[in-house]
Design brief:
single chain; mainly alpha; 1 helix
């Protein structure tokens, strides 16, 4: 049970929150939630690892 992949679940939750913000608050609320979510993600990565390394999220083809 410890092999849960969290990134798809987190992505789905973020998508739901952005969808609700867009549906009930309009474009400005959508963009505000999007920007604050990105800032929170970067702060969380920095707090966890001590550095911001986004190279793990890019797609590499062999």
């Amino acid at each position: 049970m410890n092999n849960i992949q969290w990134m798809p679940l987190i992505g789905m939750a973020v998508g739901i929150v952005l969808g609700l913000a867009g549906a009930f608050g309009g474009l400005s609320a959508f963009l505000l939630v999007l920007v604050l979510g990105a800032v929170g993600f970067l702060v969380g990565r920095f707090a966890e690892t001590g550095e911001v390394n986004l190279s793990n999220f890019s797609v590499r083809r062999k």
